[in-house]
Amino acid sequence: MTKTRLPVAIACAGLLLPISAIASQADFVPGTKHTCYLHLATGKPYVLQTRTFHWKKNEIETYTTAVAFYAPGSGEFLWFGSDYTPDQYFRYGKTYSTPGCTDAHANPLLLQDGEWANFWAINCSLWVFHSNLKFPSIGRGWWYVAEHPNESSSTPFGGKWVESIYLDKLLGSDFFHRPERLRYDARPYVFQPLIGVKKVGSNWDLQIQGTDEKALVVLDKNFRVVKIAKPSGKRK
């Protein structure tokens, strides 16, 4: 995944709005567009692009470094961003706006049934960035973002296109206990519990690795938990 912590013709779910329908709410910062041409694990090509835009969030001046995924031809578009105050952006936010152009992803990225889903997990928290937005070009997608900057999703602050799941509440605090080898180690214990994800029918199957055991967490099409199964076969 990248380090990166918008019409007016809008084509979304079959809806087409004229250019004059909505006024732009954000301005792009010149020189911040970076593009990668990559492939999913299925071999399908897609575009990864980052841009920074300037706007007012709740009347507060804000810079947002955003990353977008776009599927040429079919038009699926997913975006999310990281917000900075002007001081934060110019001090260190600018350094996180350039993507790493590689097909390898630490956070599983899937395009299934006309929808993007990007799964992020660290320690007991899991986030799913998702979108069924569609546009005839990635440029039209960014125009949409400029009109709707308040839809930006991020961790841990939420947003329109992200769902949060707290694995320790689902699986119990003992599922992720500190390993015995680190019992007397004062350093923070950081782990990535998501070891596999796939779509089965309309559901998403997530393989979760605990300290000593594994579990299956099943999400429905709205990314809500519908089932939990442990190796013993017990279900919640």
Break the fold down into its secondary structure elements and pairings:
Elements: E1 10-12, E2 15-17, E3 27-28, E4 34-39, E5 45-57, E6 60-70, E7 76-84, H1 86-91, E8 109-112, E9 115-122, E10 125-131, E11 133-134, H2 138-147, E12 162-166, H3 167-171, E13 194-200, E14 203-209, E15 214-219, E16 225-229
Antiparallel strand pairs: 1-2, 3-5, 4-5, 5-6, 6-7, 7-11, 8-9, 9-10, 10-12, 13-14, 14-15, 15-16
Would you give an account of this structure?
The protein is mainly β and 236 residues long. It folds into two domains: 155 residues, no CATH class; 62 residues, no CATH class. It has three helices and 16 strands. A hairpin with a 2-residue loop joins strand 5 and strand 6. The longest helix has 10 residues. The N terminus is likely disordered.
Features:
mainly beta, 42% strand, 16 strands, 3 helices, single chain, 236 residues, globular, disordered N terminus
Order of helices and strands: EEEEEEEHEEEEHEHEEEE
Question: Low-confidence stretches at least 5 residues in length (pLDDT < 50)?
Answer: 1-22
What amount of the residues lies in strands? 35-45%
Largest sheet: 6 strands, antiparallel
Q: Which structural class is indicated by helix and strand composition?
A: mainly beta
- Terminal CA distance reads 32 Å
- What's the helical proportion of residues? under 10%
What assembly state would you assign to the polypeptide chains in this entry?
single chain
What's the mean pLDDT score?
A: 87
Task: Count up the helices.
Answer: 3
Using only CA atoms, what is the Rg?
19 Å
Shape: globular
The total of beta strands comes to: 16
Q: How many structural domains are formed by the residues?
A: 2
